[in-house]
Amino acid sequence: MADDVVCEGRPGTALSDGYSWRKRLFHFLIIAGPGLMVMLADTDVGSIVTAAQSGAQWGYRLLWLQMLLIPILYLVQEMTVRLALATHKGHGDLIKEQFGVTWSWISVGTLFLSAIGALVTEFSGLSSVGTLFHVSPVFSVGLAVVLLLVVVISGSYRKVELVGICVGLFELSLVISAVMAHPDLNAMRIQFFNIPLRNGSYLNLLAANIGAVIMPWMIFYQQGAIVDKDVCLSCKDDLKCSRWDTGIGSIMTQLVMAAVLVVTAATLGRVNPDAPLDSVGEIARALTPLIGGLSGKILFAVGVTGAALVASIVVSLAAAWGFGELLGVNRSLNMKFVEAPWFYVAFALGVIAAGLVVLSGLPLVNLCIGVEILNSLLLPVVLGFLILLAFRVLTPPFAMRMWEKVIVVVVYFTVVILGVVVVLGLI
User: Fold this and answer.
1) Helices 236-266 & 280-291 angle (0-180, nearest 10)
2) Distance (Å) of CA 323 to CA 152, 159, 166, 351
3) What CATH number corresponds to the domain at position 310?
4) Please, which residues have CB within 8 angstroms of residue 218's CB and are 6 or more apart in sequence?
5) 302-325: b or e for each residue (b if 16 or more CB lie within 10 Å)?
6) How many Å apart are CA 340 and CA 334, to the nearest integer?
7) Which structural domain, as residue segments, surrounds residue 200?
8) Spatial CB neighbours of 128, under 8 Å, sequence gap ≥ 6
9) Distance between CA atoms of residues 142 and 307, nearest Å
10) DSSP 3-state assignment of 145?
11) pTM of the model
């Protein structure tokens, strides 16, 4: 495995050979970021709505799934880490190299569709948060668009990553909301192991939660981010750090998902399980009287805003990197606008287009449901390419063991089958 790799191109020995814990921590902080960033973005507005519905309708009976999804999410994203470190190429670049231009167009096309849909969902969430405090959607969405453009176009990769992580950490306010909801621990213990797998409604939400945790744009983003950050190609400590980065992010994002589920299970699931929860606004209006009025509303709004903003950064950058890889043009946050104009134009167009769609007056609830269906249909394509690349490109010491290959294949077919369940349940 990659633990046997030495660090080439850097003076000295590997960090494991006599380095102090302070130097190891400093090294981790230098390398970490892409995994945490993409995982914070994973808990986006659509995922929050899905978790809220799960808790309201089924109490704590889907809490076990949030825990189970931690290793599954890690396993999928860890493949992007290996591919990035082994090849120093983005996901779109590898598909074009290994399968040809046509398949590259298809793959990046799925990314664009998924990214635009996700951006619309994020901005609709920001719009809903604004209306909770009587702020015009034009102002809230317009401000978000301007902030995103300023942060990305005027920054470097490390600055953008730092801003994204700091904003995303506001999601942890949702964990505080879960504590404020005073969940019944005995009911949680009983319902945790009460799994009604024969119930069609339960299966639909189970599938939706799986679909909400693995997004097509996550794969493109993390691989592109590691390349743009210029992590050492063959350093065993960099691989270890990237894995820890991904693992910590996986735990954190599912902790937030579990917190949202617990909030609604402890409140709406107890007093009004049939409350409509198709948007962030509906969730907040239903929850805030039960978790503390204004303070509960503010905590929930802060968490959703952080989730929506970091997801918007990740989604738009994933699309811009995919676009640049497809056309073979400069694509890096470390380049100025004049050095990589198409990269920044693609980023800006995606953000502005999504903002205009949200402000156009289209029925956003139906649009968000459509996005869920779209992700369910697109994920098998993107995840399929990821697995094929991992099997085809990775050689020792980055190659996957046989048991790892078996697990990812099982995960793939499970996701495909449950994706079909989601589509059938939403149509």
Assistant:
1) 70
2) 16, 22, 27, 14
3) 1.20.1740.10
4) 38, 41, 42, 77, 314, 318
5) bbbbbbbbbbbbbbbbbbbbbbbb
6) 9
7) 32-426
8) 279, 280, 281, 284, 304
9) 17
10) helix
11) 0.85
Would you say 353 and 116 are in contact if contact means Cβ atoms under 8 Å apart?
Answer: yes
> How far is the CA of 59 from the CAs of 129, 380, 422, in angstroms?
25, 30, 20
Q: Is residue 402 classed as helix, strand or coil in its secondary structure?
A: helix
Q: How many angstroms from the chain centroid is the CA of residue 311?
A: 7
Q: How far apart are CA 320 and CA 220, in angstroms?
A: 10
Residues in CB range of 363: below 8 A, 6 or more apart: none
Are the CB atoms for 248 and 36 separated by under 8 Å? yes
In a domain, 14, yes or no: no
Give the helix ranges, DSSP H, for 328-401: 341-359, 364-393
Instruction: Single out the residue of 380, 404, 382, 379 nearest to residue 391, CA to CA.
Output: 404
pLDDT at res. 40: 92
Overall number of domains in the chain:
1
Q: CB of 236 within 8 A of CB of 7?
A: yes
List the end-to-end C-alpha distance of the chain, in Å, as a whole number: 45
Evaluate whether residue 22 is within a structural domain: no
Q: How far apart are CA 94 and CA 98, in angstroms?
A: 6
In a domain, 12, yes or no: no
Mean pLDDT by 10-residue block, N- to C-terminus, for the chain (427 residues)?
42 50 78 90 86 88 92 91 88 89 85 84 86 86 91 84 90 86 88 85 81 83 86 64 92 93 83 65 67 71 89 90 85 86 88 87 62 72 89 86 89 79 64
DSSP secondary structure string for all residues of 309-339: HHHHHHHHHHHHHHHHHHHT----TTS-TTT
Is 129 inside a domain boundary?
Answer: yes
354 vs 189: CA distance, rounded Å = 42
- Which alpha helices (DSSP H) does 267-292 contain, by range? 268-271, 280-291
pLDDT attached to residue 36: 92
